[in-house]
């Protein structure tokens, strides 16, 4: 928004007709689960049971997939505001009160054009064992979109680190998608304050836009066209016309369908999640700045500097950062070179694995989180 075959069962979601229904179901789930987990004495929560019994872990993972997604309206109602360098940043924490500090908090970072609600299918499951934070990056979602602002990957990475320092106040695991993943990589590489405990990268981008400097003949061949497109976007009338066409509901649905493997999850909520912030004042300026700006630091140069545990999940049907492209090939080579990197290819999944096939993501993510070394 952006390696083993995965045989997980399809994701089970109950109808999301109301917030009350979701809360009632989740309460029922927790009540039933209490009796099952009480028979194992080596853990403090269901996810940690992974280390107690493989059979039990499979049962817990399957039942967790039945948790209902958060309603977009509930996310919007419970979001908070944080002022960063004079700009208002929108963020979300779930559950709001959690006194258990045995597990690290998680910070979710969306991709291009997305926002906090893009994680609605993941937050309830992750929040069973972790305090989950999510933010709207500057220029996206309900965060400020300042006119004339020069967006960059470095700015977003600084925002992430300051959020960890001022709001989370504990070492956290960063979970990012697409450009959000790259922002997490930059933040982890630049952090000198021990704020990051681990990285989860979902189809990591090679740069803020398609002009990322990578050794690929396809990008080199297209560079003149990309520069010409940048020139057109810098003409206010042309940019406004193109942006108006892109943010139409039918256009967004078509674009999203092209980058999702699971077309069923391209629903009205998803379209609205992308469409609503694009109507804000400053959204056009943000779009133009991001598409035409410098691509930023390259993950190829940054990853070797990071010794933290890294989990890479990659949808094999991603048209933006294909696994056989330069960025995908680089990440697929990492497990054989770096002992701190684990990578899994998710079959039939597109650029946004966490929303496309959350069941496959959770199957790999939850055990990895449960086995993170203590900070």
In brief:
The chain is α/β, with parallel strands linked by helices. The protein has 15 helices and eight strands.
Q: How would you characterize this protein structure?
A:
With 375 residues, the protein is an alpha/beta fold. Helix content is 42%, strand content 12%. The chain is built from 15 helices and eight strands. It has helices at residues 19-37, 54-64, 72-78, 123-126, 153-168, 179-190, 217-233, 236-246, 249-259, 268-278, 283-292, 299-302, 326-333, 353-356, 358-370, and strands spanning 80-84, 87-94, 106-109, 132-135, 172-177, 196-202, 310-315, 341-346. Strands 1-2-4-3-5-6-7-8 form an eight-stranded mixed beta sheet, sandwiched between helices. Helix 5 (153-168) packs across helix 6 and helix 9 (249-259) packs across helix 10. The longest helix has 19 residues, at 19-37. The radius of gyration is 20 Å and the shape is globular. The two termini are 30 Å apart.
Q: How many β-strand stretches?
A: 8
User: SSE order, as H and E?
Assistant: HHHEEEHEHEHEHHHHHHEHEHH
The parts where pLDDT drops under 50 for at least 5 residues are 2-65
How big a fraction of the residues is strand? 5-15%
> Strands of the biggest beta sheet: in what spatial order?
1-2-4-3-5-6-7-8
Overall mean pLDDT? 81
Task: Provide the helix percentage.
Answer: 40-55%
